[in-house]
């Protein structure tokens, strides 16, 4: 298995062919060894066009979904970013290559621990991981220029909008437990916000005080 070739094919066939245009997103996903974020037995499938299980009944998102959500965040390099749902750590790594600082929250300890190890081995040192309920954000680290939720929310968690800086973007899947719509919340300078809808998607549940109650 030649991972470099598989990764190049993924970027061309799944991302560029479907309209991902942000050069920085493309470069980051071309560089980042996605196969290190899945279990060894599944490494050969890491560049396939689908999500994959990462244990604890959770998944690493499909590469196209990672690219699209990241593109919607419009990162230029100087941002403070928050991610809810660290999972494997792959999305956090992509964000870390495109922004100044990434804070990421995961509620399942073994996933957070494994993500920490991989991210450290790749020397991605601008990532802060917390084990907690991310539906209330990360008050001490706020405000954020961009926030990404990588689990399906029943509604837009108000605390996350609150912790967005003026001009900031919040990207998240909103819907029921079977299907959601990718939504982008744009916070204006005066604190009010507008929402835009992107494509349909299916994520695992966002569980917490401002999410779903249980799995
Ligand atoms: N971004 C991940 C994919 C995450 S899957 C990656 O790149 O691999 C969604 C993750 O969200 C799961 O690991 C799940 O445990 C986590 N999650 C669900 N509800 C959460 C909450 N309230 N706070 C933090 N993490 C949560």
Characterise this structure.
- This protein has 215 residues and is of the alpha/beta class.
- The protein has a single domain, classed as Rossmann fold (3-Layer(aba) Sandwich).
- The protein contains 6 helices and 9 strands, in the order H-H-E-E-H-E-H-E-H-E-E-H-E-E-E.
- Strand 6, helix 6 (158-162) and strand 7 form a beta-alpha-beta unit.
- Helix 1 packs antiparallel against helix 2 and helix 1 packs across helix 3 (63-72).
- The protein is globular and about 50 Å long.
- The model has no long low-confidence stretch (mean pLDDT 97).
- It binds S-adenosyl-L-homocysteine.
- S-adenosyl-L-homocysteine (SAH) binds at residues 58-61, 84-85, 87-88, 90-91, 105-108, 111, 133-135, 150-151, 204, 206-208, 211.
Task: Write a brief structural summary.
The chain has 215 residues and is an alpha/beta fold. It is built from six helices and nine strands, in the order ααββαβαβαββαβββ. The protein has helices spanning 3-15, 23-31, 63-72, 90-98, 109-121, 158-162, and strands at residues 52-55, 58-60, 80-84, 101-106, 127-131, 144-149, 164-175, 180-187, 193-201.
